[in-house]
Design goal:
CATH topology: Tetracycline Repressor, domain 2
Strand order of the largest sheet: 1-2
Distance between the termini: 39 Å
Number of domains: 1
Radius of gyration: 21 Å
Order of helices and strands: HHHHEEHHHHHHHHH
Largest sheet: 2 strands, antiparallel
Number of helices: 13
CATH class: Mainly Alpha
Structural class: mainly alpha
CATH superfamily: UbiA prenyltransferase
């Protein structure tokens, strides 16, 4: 039911933001504890949101030939089990958010010992950074990314809602890593988040081209179903053009250099290729190549920070 391969759309930008936000926003390695919590929260938040999407769209997916084979419509997983999994994901996400807040110096809860000697390591002591923001924002963020699943029922901006959900990966990571030593928010993660928002909206518009007839029949909102294929593709091209511009702006804001800028140029070429593939009718392949964008940019950005 959960496409873990789709994690490459958001997780790389969260990891890049973790390195940008380290040392109070000066950049560097944020530490293994924070890095673990970022990955932990990303996995569970995304799994919760995707599970909720599958539950919300189960009846519509049944009537769509492209999605009828998904786990719930196909009867492989019941809605009840999906709800249980959703609750587990939400609980684990909330626990990870709390561990950023746990006050420093608390008594250790989990210790490993050998032959009755004093503890050789304390897992609990890895966490607790005095940052309450992740715990405060956990519920609103989870609510926002899950509500996306209903946005297609009332707004044509559904693609941008999805983009805003992925935008929370770099922005939320900065908020989790930078305080209390650094600022809660800064221009670099906001502009990077804007790039993620527009990049995601652009490729989601392309993806929605496959379901124009289904969306019109079901009364669902999407730009392709409302404005048609060609007009929607122009909106997608504009989104991706602004994406590359925003990625270039990130460089001076975050102090990134040649390695990152080379990746931005490569990203621009990938997006051009994506739209050429759509022009040739290869919509599915055009969507899939977006998986390389996050990995490329995050790898180059982290490398630039460390080098």
């Amino acid at each position: 039911m959960i496409r873990f391969s789709h994690t490459v759309f958001a997780l790389p930008f969260a990891l890049m933001a973790a390195f940008l936000a380290a040392e109070g926003g000066r950049g560097g390695f944020c530490g293994w504890g924070k890095l673990f919590l970022i990955i932990w929260c990303m996995v569970w938040a995304r799994s919760a949101a995707m599970t909720f999407n599958r539950i919300a769209d189960a009846e519509i997916d049944t009537r769509n030939p492209r999605t009828a084979a998904r786990a719930i419509p196909a009867g492989q997983i019941s809605k009840r089990k999906a709800w249980v999994f959703l609750y587990i994901c939400a609980m684990f996400f909330g626990a990870g958010a709390y561990l950023f807040w746990r006050p420093l110096g608390n008594t250790n809860i989990v210790s490993l010992t050998l032959s009755g000697d004093r503890p050789i390591t304390s897992i609990w002591s890895w966490f607790g950074y005095g940052n309450y923001w992740p715990a405060v924002l956990a519920v609103p963020i989870l609510f926002f990314i899950c509500l996306y699943s209903y946005s297609k029922r009332f707004t044509w901006a559904t693609h941008f809602w999805l983009g805003a959900s992925l935008m929370l990966a770099p922005v939320g990571t900065w908020i989790a890593v930078s305080p209390p030593a650094g600022p809660v928010l800064s221009a670099a993660p906001v502009v990077l988040g804007l790039a993620v928002l527009l990049w995601t909206a652009g490729f989601d518009i392309i993806y929605a081209i496959q379901d124009i007839q289904v969306d019109r029949r079901e009364g669902l909102y999407s730009l392709p179903s409302r404005w048609g294929k060609q007009s929607s593709l122009w909106i997608s091209r504009i989104c991706h053009s602004v994406t590359v511009t925003a990625l270039l702006v990130v460089a001076p804001l975050a102090g990134l250099g040649g390695i990152y800028l080379s990746a931005v140029v490569a990203t621009g070429l990938i997006l051009v290729l994506e739209h050429l593939l759509v022009w040739r009718g290869r919509v599915k392949l055009a969507f899939d190549i977006n998986g390389a964008v996050g990995i490329l940019l995050a790898g180059a950005g982290i490398g630039d920070i460390l080098i």
